[in-house]
Automatic annotation (TrEMBL):
The gene is iolB. Keywords: Isomerase. Its EC number is 5.3.1.30. It comes from the Bacteria. It is an enzyme of class 5 (isomerase). The lineage of its organism: Bacteria, Pseudomonadati, Pseudomonadota, Alphaproteobacteria, Hyphomicrobiales. GO terms for biological process: inositol catabolic process. This is 5-deoxy-glucuronate isomerase.
Length: 265
């Protein structure tokens, strides 16, 4: 199995390149571009669909022969909800940076019958999940109930300093609806301030997979299967961008039985 912790490659250009081939799985892809004003990121979706997320900065976007104009605006992922752009299979796209720009390219298997669309901030309300030191703030970008994509699910989460997230541990690695769905997942991590670090564990019930990782600003973690909780340290807020995709566009998870008592406390 490939290394589950993917470090950024440099500080400029395409820093991260996760594909189904190099991740050893079937569905999820994730790229991260860091551009200077005037520079361009572009691509062709082919048989896949894409969600572009303006992690920080502004850029002019074109997709599926449509001009979407200037998108973005926040200069940090900790400064409010994002702009995003959905692009269906069989399309090309480009984004020209107007400021320093950090652009995430989230991808999964596509299909016909979908149209390119901008997803402005506020499209989906922020959700507060958990309580106490398990509180986190969730902003759906492409949730399962929007019906406007074939496979992609995309969400941002802010976890305050000292808190846990994706916790109690849950998994979604069995194609067994309505009980559980199979979804591969990536986490793109950012820390505020950026010199901080957090932890993520990916493990299965039988411990055939059991990896605990220290994650730093800009790291990506791969979740091919199993539970995947994370925790950030005192003094450092954690942002992560999740990309999920599988055979069905449904997020149905299973909680670790030994920790489920916390949901009833």
């Amino acid at each position: 199995m490939p290394n589950l912790l993917v470090k950024p490659n440099g500080t400029h250009g395409r820093l991260t390149h996760v594909t189904p081939e190099n991740a050893g799985w079937t569905h999820v892809g994730f790229d991260l571009h860091r551009l200077k004003p005037g520079e361009t990121a572009s691509g062709e979706t082919g048989s896949r669909e894409v969600c572009l997320v303006w992690v920080s900065g502004k850029g002019k976007a074109r997709a599926s022969s449509r001009d979407f104009g200037s998108l973005g605006g926040r200069m940090s992922p900790f400064e409010g909800p994002p702009h995003a752009l959905y692009i269906p299979a069989g399309s090309d796209w480009s984004v020209i940076a107007e400021t320093d720009l950090e652009l995430a390219v989230c991808s999964g298997p596509g299909a016909t019958g979908f149209e390119a669309r901008a997803i402005p901030p506020g499209t989906h309300e922020q959700i507060i999940r958990g309580k106490g030191s398990n509180t986190r703030y969730v902003t759906n970008i492409m949730p399962e109930d929007d019906g406007a994509a074939h496979s992609l699910l995309v969400v941002e989460v802010i976890t305050p300093a000292g808190n846990t997230s994706s916790y109690p541990p849950h998994k979604h690695d069995r194609d067994d609806l309505p009980n559980e769905s199979f979804l591969e997942e990536t986490y793109y991590h950012r820390l505020n301030p950026p010199q901080g670090f957090a932890f993520q564990r990916v493990y299965t019930d039988d411990r055939s997979l059991d990896e605990a990782m220290a994650v730093e600003d800009g790291d990506v973690t791969l979740v091919p299967k199993g539970y995947h909780p994370c925790a950030t340290c005192h003094g450092y807020d954690l942002y992560y961008l999740n990309v999920m995709a599988g055979p069905k566009r449904v997020w149905k998870f299973h909680n670790a039985a030994e920790h489920e008592w916390m949901l009833k406390a």
